[in-house]
Amino acid sequence: MPSSTAPPFVTSSPRLRREAQTVAAMVRLYCRGHHHAGPRALCPDCRELLDYARQRLGRCPFQEDKTSCADCTVHCYHPRMRQAIQEAMRYAGPRMVMRHPLLAVFHWWDKRRKAGKLKK
Q: In angstroms, how far is CA 11 from the centroid of its own chain?
């Protein structure tokens, strides 16, 4: 049986690690609220979404200079997954302030960033 917790996101960038943590917290909140999963467990659909989001984050062309994915000029998510992550973030966003206030503040701050230049 597959593990209910995700493997750690591996990167040298503290900023991307924090963003991966934020996405994981948001997906967990969404899954718990909609699929009645436990505090650390995820249903198979949410597990797939989180794994996909981490994969996309690891391959982001902007890396450390990235803005939030919603404000990015390069849309690297498949349309089905983009819709799923938007739905999860729409639900989890307001709840993040109470459950994960530091991650919420950092996410808000990151949304204010301008995207860097693409590296050739």
A: 15
